[in-house]
Amino acid sequence: MNDPHRPTTFGPQGADGAEPGLGDIAAVSVEGLIDAVESAGTKTERRRRWALPLRIAVSLLMLGVLWWKFPEIKWADLIPAWDLNTILWLLAATATTFLGIVLSAVRWQSVLRALGLRERLRVLVPLYFAGQFVSNVLPTTIGGDVLRVSRLSKANGQPETTFASVALERLTGWLVLPLITFFGLAINPGLRELDRATFLALAVAIVTLVALVVVLLAANHPRLGGRFASTEGWRRFVDAIHQSITELRRQPLAALSILVAGLVYQVVLCIAALMVAAALGFSWLGLTALLAFYPAVLILQVLPIGIAGLGVRESAFVLFLVPLGVPAEKAVALGLVLYVINVVASLFGAPAFAVGGQKTAVTA
Question: Hey, where are the domains in the chain?
Answer without folding.
Answer: 22-355
